[in-house]
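WP5 quarterly update. Target: Somatoliberin. Source organism: Gorilla gorilla gorilla. Length: 108 aa.
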Amino acid sequence: MPLWVFFFVILTLSSSSHCSPPPPLTLRMRRYADAIFTNSYRKVLGQLSARKLLQDIMSRQQGESNQERGARARLGRQVDSMWAEQKQMELESILVALLQKHSRNSQG
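Structure tokens (predicted):
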């Protein structure tokens, strides 16, 4: 007897699960229903996690946008403050010059 036939016979005899009858129809239907539920449940969980990820991304972008707006507003206030100080110094120097000119004219 060839060696491969011997192994084939041994494998066939040792695996009794291949020779067992199929499960009853009610058990197969229950498994089928469980499979449908499991697939649908996984799909819903996937959609929920995708929605949460999208919300996280959107909130991060909105937070960054708010931070940028806040930084721009702070920078704008700083520029406005610097501009106001510069204008005040210019006005003070003009006022000092006018006062000096007026005091020279009144003395002489």
